[in-house]
TrEMBL record:
UniProt xrefs under PANTHER family: FORMYLGLYCINE-GENERATING ENZYME, SULFATASE MODIFYING FACTOR 1, 2
Domain of life: Bacteria
SUPFAM superfamilies reported in the protein's UniProt record: C-type lectin-like (SSF56436)
InterPro entries: CTDL_fold, Sulfatase_Mod_Factor_Kinase, SUMF_dom, SUMF_sf
Species annotation: Chondromyces crocatus
Protein name stated in the entry: Sulfatase-modifying factor enzyme-like domain-containing protein
GO molecular function: formylglycine-generating oxidase activity
Domain Sulfatase-modifying factor enzyme-like: start-end pairs: 77-281
Length: 285
């Protein structure tokens, strides 16, 4: 094989790059412990049913997920986050003219490590504190198609509240203003569940992946899925209850731009969407 350089001569860099890609093959989409089954990442030993759900008892899960007969399920806890002066001043060219730079003092707080999954939400329904929702029937995936008010009801049941946008951004960007929750580079499929419907990470997916399944995408404090999987409800400080902000990007988004810590969408509080979920925040103890 002849690999042309800039002037038509063989390029050593081109040869090295081609050899590396040939040997390594395509970048792994699923984290260690999960296996790629069509457009889903399921526990090893599982299968995908006609509704796109991971079914059967797995014999291995990714790090941080618990093996259960119903599948791989993340066990949530609360992560303590120190407060400070949040400076939102995105330097990405995509943000120019669309994102307002501002500063806000954010007191310390606690935040769910994981997005609220169907297993946790079902506990609230059984307690009579949350309304029934059309769940997908896979306990480890995040709750979706939930309104802002319904998400608030769950957080009240859990002893907390929906995070403000400033709290969420502080958890994702830190006081240093990271571009992504894990750092400034590396928006790859093993770190974030995005581009699952029309690429680049998969095609034909109809819903999110397991909560907490991608430990490589954790923030320095260990909070997971702050970018991708489901966009998350946050409270707009000082705004009416008819509006909310969703942040973090989701499995539907095709561009890593949606994963940026400054990215936000304003939506009606009554919106129900397959790509919007939530987690809860709690007062510092």
């Amino acid at each position: 094989m002849r690999i042309a350089g800039i002037a038509g001569a063989p390029s050593l860099l081109g040869i090295v790059t081609w050899c590396a890609l040939t040997i390594a093959g395509p970048t792994a989409r699923c984290p260690v412990g999960l296996t790629s089954l069509g457009s889903r990442c399921c526990g090893e030993g599982q299968r995908v049913d006609s509704e796109g759900r991971c079914t059967g008892e797995p014999h291995r899960c990714s790090h941080g997920l618990r093996l259960t007969p119903a599948g791989c399920i993340g066990e949530n806890d609360q992560v303590s986050l120190a407060g400070g002066l949040l400076r939102l001043a995105p330097s990405d060219w995509e943000a120019q003219g669309t994102v307002r730079s501002y500063e806000a003092w954010v007191p310390g707080f606690h935040l769910d490590r994981l997005e609220v999954n169907e297993a946790r939400y079902t506990q609230c329904v059984l307690a009579g504190s949350c309304p029934q929702l059309p769940l997908r029937g896979e306990p480890g995936i995040p709750v979706t198609s939930i309104t802002l008010d319904e998400a608030q009801k769950f957080c009240h049941f859990a002893g907390g509240a929906l995070p403000s946008r400033e709290q969420f951004v502080l958890a994702a960007s830190g006081l240093s203003g990271r571009r992504y929750p894990w750092g400034d580079t590396g928006a790859v499929c093993r770190r974030a569940s995005y581009g699952l419907r029309d690429g680049p990470c998969a095609r034909g997916t109809s819903g999110p992946e397991l909560t907490g399944a991608r430990p490589d995408g954790a923030s320095p404090e260990g909070v997971l899925d702050l970018a991708g999987n489901v966009a998350e409800w946050t409270i707009v400080t000082g705004a009416s209850t008819s509006a909310g902000h969703v942040v973090g990007g989701s499995w539907m988004d095709e561009s890593a731009t949606a994963l940026r810590t400054w990215h936000v969408r304003s939506v009606e509080a009554t919106t129900r969407s397959d790509d919007i979920g939530f987690r809860c925040a709690y007062a510092a103890r």
